[in-house]
Write a structure and sequence with these properties.
Chain lengths: ~290, ~350
């Protein structure tokens, strides 16, 4: 079969295929709806924190909610720097991975269900390129989602408080380029984590034609990982869990940035990415047109 | 068939590579072999530690304890804490204690000491008395003959313990000597040995572990998990609180440092015994007890939960036991604590 397809027309450049895929992704109403909803979250957070009195309610490190970012939220109200990161931290727990899983589910399983993947499989495009296009599509979507949150978060904080509150958790005040650099770093890091989730979703997606199966398994996996992560008896397992790396995003707000956890988390995401993509590739190669 | 095999190869290879990567990431950093270092006498090692000026460095210090104390709701977890430490080599430093989503920062600058709590948005500032650091430095310089001081220190230690250098270790990637203090057999203590890992080049203590009888895992360990020597940026040793921060001024001398436990805090402690069975005797000031209650900490309730009630000639009270120390708190607010079994505390209270 390869002999027949390969020499025929391998002229379609990946960039054109990706552009077509992106047009396809961003034309879906649900993509836009998800992005819109994600964009609203930081606005709600910012307004809610500005309306509620942020002092008083936040004794340090106490109460049941403290472990879930209470301290971060307490500082979030005021700062252009902190609100985007806080919004990313909150949504990275559940919503952003869900969005990444949705992108992964639509990319293969969704298209199998509607019959459009058949066109891809029959077209003179090698399966590796097909996967590359799909993976880049997922990556772009997650990047847009993370950027959306960061931008609306920053704008919300800017409107509510102005730009003179760029201070870190260590109490130092940052310059505007430095703060923007940190937000960009956070967005890039979150995108990498989400891409890893998306890659695993793609792998599952290649095996099924029901997008719901992909969503359910990724969501279930995240919940299981979170539960495993909260069990102290399994602390030997924690370095392997992707979700355990996600708290490191807060390190962006410390000064100087402790990079060990961020780098470790990025490497961990890369490992998941390799696993996910190679399984997806293996399934895709052996899939019949 | 060909594609099937290709598919299987890619799947296995990719998954194996990813899993291997995860495994490498999960591997504990301390799994390196002990370095080869020239032999050194305990006395010489102690001397070089006393003489050494800590150089400029940055690192991450972690405290691990397996004391066997249950975690107290509403109190910061003590079992694993890490702090980033920066030091400029000349007495100025910064410590940032990380919490999951906030940070406590302490900055010891040229003239002032700052502490900043990002969760509460509050800062305290204490002016350092003039020349405080100078004096400190001169004192260090005054120990002009470190070998003599070392002899004194080692002699003093050897009254109650055996001091030896027991092999080497790798701490935070640095080669280190292990200095070991073992209590003499007639010392009535819970501690089996105390190990101090000393950097072989900088002669800075890198790690301290306290081991108790019956286990190989340290009951308490504090040390660097990462350390790097070299000049640090100047801005780390200055602090100006962010806008909108509530700043409290403290009078000099009483800095707002982190409060560790409750045992060593509080004024006017007496000492009974010496060596390893030293017992600290004191009285919890009533304002502290009331302060604790107004903070919402129920002292009596806590004692009842963690301590076991005891009675004796000293009256009645509660004993709180951990693996490396015991504290006895009586109903009328007297307190005795030490790295000793309960019996020694009773005697110390009774003989007073």
């Amino acid at each position: 079969m390869e002999v027949m397809t390969e020499p025929a027309r391998r002229t379609a450049p990946v960039s054109r295929l990706v552009r077509a895929e992106l047009r396809w992704i961003f034309r879906r109403p649900r993509t836009l709806a998800v992005l819109g909803l994600l964009g609203v979250i930081p606005v709600i957070m910012g307004i809610a924190l500005a309306v509620a009195d942020p002092t008083g309610s936040s004794s340090p490190g106490e109460g049941p909610g403290a472990g879930e970012g209470g301290g971060l939220l307490a500082t979030a109200a005021g700062s252009v720097l902190v609100l985007p990161i806080a919004a990313l931290t909150m949504t990275l727990r559940m919503l952003l991975p869900l969005a990444a899983a949705m992108a992964g589910a639509d990319a293969l399983a969704g298209e199998t269900a509607t019959g459009t993947l058949r066109g891809w499989l029959l077209a003179p495009v090698s399966r590796g390129r097909l996967l590359l296009v799909k993976a880049l599509g997922v990556a772009t979507f997650t990047l847009v989602a993370a950027t959306m949150i960061a931008v609306t978060g920053a704008v919300t904080a800017l409107v509510l408080n102005g730009a003179d509150t760029l201070y870190t958790l260590s109490g130092t005040t940052l310059s505007i380029p430095d703060a923007l650099g940190r937000i960009a770093l956070a967005v890039g890091w979150v995108t990498l984590q989400l891409w890893a989730v998306g890659a695993v979703a793609l792998a599952i997606s290649a095996f099924t034609e029901h997008p719901m199966v992909v969503l359910a398994s990724v969501l279930g996996g995240i919940i299981v990982f979170t539960v495993l992560g909260s069990l102290d008896a399994l602390s030997w397992l924690h370095p392997v869990l992707l979700t355990e790396a996600w708290w490191a995003i807060v390190d962006v707000l410390r000064d100087p940035i402790p990079d060990a956890d961020l780098i470790g988390g990025a490497l961990k995401a890369a490992c998941y990415l390799v696993i996910g993509l190679s399984i997806a590739y293996a399934r895709l190669v052996s899939k019949d047109g | 068939m060909n594609t099937k095999r290709k598919a299987a190869t890619v799947a296995v290879a990719g998954t194996a590579a990813g899993a291997l990567g995860l495994g490498l990431l999960a591997m504990p950093a301390g799994a390196e072999s002990a370095p080869e270092l020239p032999e050194i006498e305990a006395q010489e090692l102690v001397g070089s530690v006393l003489k050494a000026q800590p150089p400029a460095m940055s690192g991450t210090a972690t405290v691990d304890n397996e004391l066997g104390l249950p975690s107290v709701p509403g109190m910061p977890a003590l079992d694993a804490q890490s702090a980033r430490v920066y030091y400029d080599g000349e007495g100025r430093g910064r410590v940032a204690m990380e919490q999951q989503s906030s940070e406590l920062t302490y900055v010891l600058g040229e003239r002032e000491f700052w502490s900043y709590d990002s969760a509460a948005g509050t800062a305290t500032r204490a002016e350092l008395p003039d020349g405080a650091r100078e004096q400190h430095r001169n004192q260090e310089a005054a120990g002009a003959d470190p070998s003599q001081v070392a002899t004194q220190v080692v002699d003093r230690l050897e009254e109650s313990s055996n001091v030896s250098v027991d092999g080497t270790a790798r701490v935070a990637g640095r080669a280190a000597y292990e200095l070991v203090l073992t209590p003499k057999p007639d010392e009535r203590t819970l501690v089996r040995e105390v190990r101090v890992a000393v950097d072989s080049e900088e002669r800075l203590p890198l790690r301290m572990s306290v081991l108790t009888h019956g286990t190989t895992e340290p009951a308490f360990e504090a040390g660097f998990s990462e350390i790097e020597f070299g000049p640090q940026p100047e801005r780390l040793f200055e602090f100006s609180p962010p806008e909108g921060t509530e700043v409290t001024e403290r009078e000099p001398g009483r800095n707002g440092g982190p409060q560790h436990g409750g045992d060593a805090e509080g004024p006017e402690f007496d000492v009974a015994g010496d060596g390893w069975d030293t017992v600290l005797l004191g009285r919890i000031p009533s304002e502290m007890r009331e302060g604790a209650e107004s903070n919402g900490t129920d002292m009596t309730g806590m004692l009842e939960r963690f301590g076991k009630p005891v009675q004796g000639e000293f009256g009645s009270g509660h004993v709180v036991e951990t693996r490396i120390g015991t504290a006895l708190i009586t109903e009328d607010g007297r307190i005795a604590a030490g790295a000793v079994p309960e019996q020694v505390l009773r005697q110390a209270l009774e003989n007073r």
